[in-house]
TrEMBL record:
The lineage of its organism: Bacteria, Bacillati, Bacillota, Bacilli, Bacillales. Belongs to the class-II aminoacyl-tRNA synthetase family. Phe-tRNA synthetase alpha subunit type 1 subfamily. It comes from the Bacteria. This is Phenylalanine--tRNA ligase alpha subunit. The gene is pheS. Mg(2+) binds at residue 249.
Length: 337
């Protein structure tokens, strides 16, 4: 039995057969178990001798099974290690790199300029109440100037904000009458417009507001000149033209001299040599009051600009829709500067 078992076990080359053989010899109905079971019929002298032999046989079989098992395990581990080997000397795979969207780039640039002048950045909800978007900005219901900003209403009291000025009101109120206040508010705004090369129902604005004692129109003009030169080049000139906004008095529109567009030339330059880029003015006393400031004690200025328009002028872009349709050829031009 031993010789036969050992010979068979010696030749085993896979774990399954090994297990079958273990059952065959050592299992409940195995050959060796049978021998042990038959011991009852032996004489008292024979029993220890046969028992001894049977135990030796079992020991020998167990030993060879054990060593075979270990060998199989080693082989399996080795094979796995070989299969999972990583060649760390192989060159890496190139991952395509994303870039900052040109609009976000311009927003960051404008933010940087104003942060450098001591402003902080405030944000607010895109779904706004009629109160913050219009009423607190001196645009009561049925005011004709509401037509200047055709709106997407959600309910009678809720709409998609038409400008980021409501964030200025929210910020004013959060200050509880404390000055100075200097913030800029970037964000998406929505107006009912038919999309074309120069219009989009959704675009971006950055508006700014300063409130303090003795804030004058000359402060506004100096601030805007500094901003324009940092944005468009140190030679840039500005001019203010009288205008109207319900939330500012007096109100103005600001033009800058033609921007240097770089290699492709400056197509956006008008014959007049001036380009309109933003609206501004001195904060209306009623708006100060609704924002929680005493108009007798404090004054302020505010301005607001369209980010797309600035980006179009700065980079010489011919169609506002380029910003929104995720055309890689367009976006890649901005990936690296
Ligand atoms: N909120 C105005 C607009 O969207 C811009 C503006 C802001 C004008 C602040 C004056 C002062 O048209």
């Amino acid at each position: 039995l031993k010789v036969e078992a050992l010979a068979q076990l010696e030749q085993v080359s896979d774990p399954q057969t090994l297990n079958d053989l273990r059952v065959k010899y050592l299992g409940k109905k195995g050959a060796l178990t049978e021998v042990l079971r038959g011991m009852g019929g032996l004489s008292a002298e024979e029993r220890p001798i046969i028992g001894q032999v049977a135990n030796d046989v079992r020991g020998a079989i167990e030993e060879i099974i054990e060593s075979k098992q270990q060998a199989f395990q080693r082989a399996e581990t080795e094979q796995r290690l070989r299969a999972e080997r990583v060649d760390v000397t192989l060159p890496g795979r190139n991952m395509p790199q994303g870039g900052v969207h040109p609009l976000n780039k311009v927003i960051a640039e404008i933010e940087d300029i104003f942060l450098g002048m001591g402003y902080r950045v405030a944000e607010g909800p895109e779904v706004e109440t009629d109160y913050f978007n219009f009423e607190a900005l001196n645009l009561p219901k049925n005011h004709p100037a509401r037509d200047m900003q055709d709106s997407f209403y959600i309910t009678e009291e809720l709409l998609m904000r038409t400008h980021t000025s409501p964030v200025q009101v929210r910020t004013m109120q959060s200050m509880r009458g404390e000055a100075p206040l200097k913030v800029i508010c970037p964000g998406k705004v929505y107006r009912r417009d038919d999309d074309d090369a120069t219009h989009s129902f959704q675009f971006h604005q950055i508006e700014g507001i300063v409130i303090g004692e003795n804030i004058r129109m000359s402060d506004l003009k100096g601030t805007l000149l500094q901003f324009s030169r940092e944005m468009f080049g140190s030679q840039t000139q500005i001019r203010l033209r009288p205008s109207f906004f319900p939330f500012t008095e007096p109100s103005a529109e600001m033009d800058v001299t033609c921007v240097q567009c770089g290699g492709s030339g400056c197509r956006m330059c008008k014959q007049t040599g001036w380009l309109e880029i933003l609206g501004c003015g001195m904060v209306h006393p009623k708006v100060l009051e609704m924002g929680g400031y005493d108009p007798e004690k404090y004054s302020g200025f505010a301005f607001g600009m369209g980010v797309e328009r600035i980006a179009i002028l700065k980079y010489g872009i011919d169609d506002i829709r380029h910003f929104y349709n995720s055309d890689m050829a367009f976006l890649k031009q901005f990936a690296r500067n």
